[in-house]
User: What shape does this take?
Amino acid sequence: MTIHVKNNISWVGQRDWEVRDFHGTEFKTEKGTSYNSYLIQEEKTVLIDTVDHKFCYEFIQQLELEIDLNKIDYIVINHAEEDHAGALAALLNKIPNTPIYCTENAIDSIVGHHHQPDWNFNVVKTGDSLDLGNGKQLVFIETPMLHWPDSMMTYMTGDAVLFSNDAFGQHYCDERLFNDEVDTKELMDQCLRYYANILTPFSALVTAKIKEVLSLNVPVDMIATAHGVVWRDNPIQIIEQYLTWADKYQEDRITIFYDSMSNNTRMMADAIAQGIHEVDSQVAVKVFNVARHDKNEILSNAFISKGVLVGSSTMNNVMMPKVAGMLEEITGLRFKNKKAAAFGSYGWNGGAIDRIESRLEDAGFERFESLKTKWRPDGKAILECREYGRMIAREWALTSAPATDVSAPAANQAVLEQAVPEQEPQAVEVVKPMQDGAVVQFSPDTSMLCTVCQWVYDPAQGEPNQDVAPGTAWSEVPDYFLCPECGLGKDVFEEIKTKKAVA
Ligand code: FEO
Assistant: This one.
């Protein structure tokens, strides 16, 4: 089946109503997904991406009903993961030697999966273009780590369509293709789930890359994603929403998650939630048992919360394994701007709480005092839990604006203009004007962390491979500097700060 997208662009992808797992079993696709492939028929005929390998034969069968495959001049692969490039082998079996345009990293991955190093690969970089005839071009924009090192987007001039691949997409299946045709709440819930569970670690890069795309100052009439809907109505809304989420996002919400051997820690969670509500009836308090609730929903709630309370019974003097797993995943997601505390019931030793505290600090939370209860909470202990909840509500009360409804992102140009995360000043020893006119000051001993791959720039060491001498402060590192691990620019680095004291 094909769907007309715009002028000479058609959707030639595949619906997958029944898929329930992505990335092993780590991402639950509760609404299915789609694999969006696009066929452009100008003077040149181009296929943008393919579909998941498990649908390769249906994909080619459908494509052959639409076009003589031999008329395809070029194949563009924006991302090499198998849900996009999976049908390449079957396709090239029909049309060998068709040129494939992709990033250098994509070749590594495609060859690694398909074992065909002799395919007709053509490496593209940001700014490279491919002429389609009829006065239109495809322009390539590398987007490494959004969300893989090989990722890129492709912009079509004339029609002003941005083929964004995974970015701005959702695991959401509907026979209707365009955002103005589907349920907005359902759609935005899936956008949030995708961002919170996959893109959060790369938030600094999201901001930098969106600013780079916007700086091209080209119109964007549609955003054609690789999963879910095509953004036809006000496509800028999802760009604005990404900028908002990327900027240390939080709502007036507290997420409590726990696991409980004998219901004692669950009783504590309920009482703490009640205490919070007694003091602050406006804050949304959401309570989850990690053993029973959908993990991705818990993580989505944690992402939009101002604070997280983590509870566990003590078992063998450690926390319960499912809580440990959640904390490990949260550490990897690198949430910003959030408070946290631990609680739990114990019998002989309360080792779980100590370990949760340590993990919360490792994960970058501002940690508050914990609460332990011995055995099953009696009436007095329940009152202590409620009082603890009241204390949390008072300490974590928002003084800023009320929560934002993610189902209705504001169409506000100001969001775009305020996209650069604020830098906090340090002791003044080096002062250098930044590109946007702001002045950021760095001490010569300030180390910087690549927020994408965690490589650390140590001024004492410099980076000799890029002619940055030992003793060079971050402010003096040239703007063309690239992270030696992941190849990204200075925009994705953040100052390493010492941990805050526990209240
Ligand atoms: Fe849709 Fe990164 O795969």
The first helix runs from residue 56 to 66. The radius of gyration is 25 Å. The chain has 13 helices and 30 strands. The first strand starts at residue 3 and ends at 6.
